[in-house]
Amino acid sequence: MAKDNHDHKHCQEWFEKLSEYIDGELDEFTCAEIEKHVKECLPCYVCLETLKRTIDLCKQTKNKRIPKAVSKKLQDLIQSYPKSTPV
Ligand SMILES: [Zn+2]
Questions:
Q1: How much distance in Å is there from the Cα of 74 to the middle of ligand 1?
Q2: What is the pTM of this model?
Q3: What is the mean pLDDT of the chain?
Q4: How far is the CA of 41 from the centre of ligand 1 (A)?
């Protein structure tokens, strides 16, 4: 069960480690700590999932050559994204 007494000030520290965690740069102990934390902390969980998806996308686009039509579409998407999304 999730304990609601953890200090969200520490979440900032987790956020900084999340990208290293996804890249597999952290030791087993720290990985386990992060996995434990995201199970109990929804904001960190959402952040991790978002980061994973973003990194997956980056890897896909790095590994493959992007066809011009697709890169144009991506650019259009990126440019229209902030406007079409209410924040
Ligand atoms: Zn957290």
A1: 31
A2: 0.57
A3: 76
A4: 5
